[in-house]
Design brief:
- The complex is a heterodimer of chains A (about 290) and B (about 250).
- With about 290 residues, chain A is mainly α.
- Chain A has twelve helices and two strands; from the N terminus they run H-H-H-H-E-E-H-H-H-H-H-H-H-H.
- Chain B has a domain of about 170 residues: Rossmann fold (3-Layer(aba) Sandwich).
- In chain B, about 35% of the residues lie in helices and about 30% in strands.
- The chains are: A mainly alpha (about 290), B alpha/beta (about 250).
- Chains A and B meet through helix 6 and helix 7 of A and helix 2, helix 3 and helix 6 of B.
- Chain A: One of its GO terms (cellular component) is plasma membrane.
Chain lengths: ~290, ~250
């Protein structure tokens, strides 16, 4: 039983990072109906930036993180400006394919620059385990969870209550009307790519700390797809709960049914939820007044 | 009186080939209400979109002519910049952000302000003209009645403190009683705040009642203009827009 609880907690903890990545996907989707399949690669690239800054150029952890963050934001803005903005108004699937392509390019370039092998980034999280009573939680996982949740909750609150958040929701709901009210919709879209770069950079560095750094680090974003579907594509608030559920489910099915099942159960759950609630658990239907 | 808005010889094409306006000229002087009358497809809404800069968003383009606001050419400006010059477009069909609260709808409009103004002052002014919005401020705008949504759409314009409001079909789908209530408030805003209005309205009776000057548009050009009392007595207008049987028609 203790075993089960420990696995559950570890699972929920990794769900915190899922929520962080999912948030980056959802803000972009909300503002421009672009599903960013390059999110995982953006996150992986951020981790390599952090590696380059701290190991190759021996910067301190804080300075290294700032450099990685600045690099991630620059790359995100470049992607938005060069590849995504010209595609605005094109069919959804065409834009999705562009983001897929960008993901492959990033993976390829990272492989060329840093090679395919595992790299070790400097430890930013303490290893010392956290004990909840007699339940053991690995130190890195617990601390990564705490950081992820603080960032996710902070961002959700910011998007909920700030003026920029109102502008984002206005641009998402009706771009032409948003323009008519002085909101520069293209700047809002660029702003959501910056948010995605921030969540990607933080989650990338955390993820590379908990696991190791390889060009395949971004593959975790595929698990996040289930989080996004489960929470609801248009629900910023839903990602946190959905992230916990998926993280927990993965860990528990890994324990009870074997690791080969942990990859598929999130999708089975997402599929079942979609059958009952097509908008996801927390997604809202649009209010239509006749 | 000085012109807030002047349009000269405007030609507009959609998708490069479909001509929506051929040669339209009009002028709105400071503090006046000007009505645009015309049948469906005559080019009234296109005129408003040309002014507010929406045409590029719908594959349209001004191919000839000029639009000036306070003497300054605005043809090349993006829509969010035009509204910050003081021309606020209240779109046809209201377009409130239905999932946001009434107050969030108003907050979104603060991006249109020309000069910084305290949120409280701006919202108090809106609630003064539309007290019902104050009671509903925390409700999702999608649950407001049609009339209340129109009030919110005009309220968003007030937040921006504009020089001029472009009103596209404010009476659309509303009960007659609500229509006159809203038009009384529009007239008050015009009088008290000296905001000019360019009004597109299917309901010619009400447009001629509240506007001081009017243009009749047919096939993308203005065919008739004049003070509204003259237009109201014009036989063609009576026949085609007011539905009055004249001797000639009989």
């Amino acid at each position: 039983m203790n075993f089960f609880i420990e696995y559950s907690i570890v699972g929920i903890a990794s769900g915190g990072i899922y929520a962080l990545i999912a948030l980056g996907i959802i803000v972009i989707f909300k503002s421009s109906k672009t599903f960013n399949f390059a999110m995982g690669e953006m996150m992986m690239l951020s981790a390599y930036f952090f590696y380059a800054a701290t190991v190759t150029y021996s910067l301190g952890l804080v300075a290294g993180f700032c450099v990685a963050l600045a690099g991630s934001i620059a790359i995100a803005l470049l992607i938005e400006r060069v590849a995504i903005r010209p595609m605005l108004g094109r069919p959804f699937i065409a834009v999705v394919m562009v983001t897929f392509g960008i993901g492959s390019i990033i993976r390829g370039v990272v492989g060329m620059v840093w090679g395919p092998n595992d790299l070790q980034i400097p430890a930013i999280l303490s290893r010392s385990p956290v004990m909840l009573g007699d339940i053991f939680i690995p130190g890195k996982t617990a601390r990564a969870f705490a950081i992820a949740v603080v960032i996710v909750v902070g961002l959700i609150a910011y998007l909920r209550y700030s003026r920029a958040g109102v502008a984002l929701r206005a641009a998402a709901a009706d771009a032409i009307t948003a323009y008519s009210m002085g909101i520069d919709v293209r700047r809002i879209i660029a702003f959501t790519w910056i948010i995605a770069a921030i969540t990607g950079c933080i989650s990338g560095v955390l993820m590379a700390n908990v696991n190791t750094l390889t060009p395949h680090l971004g593959m975790v974003a595929l698990n996040v797809l289930a989080v996004v579907i489960l929470g609801g594509m248009n629900s910023i608030g839903g990602v946190l709960i959905a992230g916990f559920i998926i993280g927990w489910l993965e860990a528990v099915t890994g324990l009870m049914l074997g690791t080969e099942y942990r990859e598929i159960t999130p999708y089975i759950l997402a599929l079942m939820v979609l059958l009952v609630r097509p908008t996801g658990l927390f997604g809202t239907k649009e209010i239509e007044r006749i | 009186m000085a012109a807030v808005l002047e349009i000269r010889d405007l030609e507009v094409c959609y998708q490069g080939v479909i001509q929506a306006l051929s040669s339209l000229s009009l002028r709105v002087s400071e503090g006046s209400i000007v009505a645009l009358l015309g049948a469906n497809g005559a080019g009234k809404t296109t005129t408003l979109k040309a002014i507010s800069g929406f045409l590029p968003l719908e594959n349209g383009r001004v191919t000839r002519g000029s639009i000036t606001i306070g003497g300054e050419d605005v043809l090349k400006l993006a829509p969010h910049k035009i509204v910050r010059r003081g021309i606020f477009h209240v779109r046809e069909g209201r377009h409130v952000f239905s999932e946001m609260t009434v107050e969030e709808n108003l907050i979104a409009s603060t991006f249109a302000q020309r000069s910084p103004r305290s949120r409280k002052d701006a919202f108090d002014e809106v609630y003064n003209y539309f007290p019902i919005l104050s009671q509903r401020r925390n409700q999702a705008a999608g649950y407001l009645s049609g009339g209340e949504q129109q009030m919110l759409a005009i309220g968003r314009a007030l937040v921006a403190d504009p020089e001029m409001i472009l009103l596209d079909e404010p009476s659309l789908g509303l009960a007659p009683l609500i229509v006159s209530e809203i038009f009384e408030i529009i007239a008050r805003i015009n009088r008290e705040k000296r905001v000019s209005m360019l009004l597109v309205e299917q309901n010619a009776v009400i447009a001629l009642k509240y506007a001081s000057y009017g243009y009749v548009i047919e096939n993308g050009r203005s065919v008739l203009e004049g003070p509204t009392e003259d237009l109201a007595n014009n036989q063609d207008i009576q026949k085609f827009y007011l539905g009055v049987e004249t001797d000639e028609a009989a």
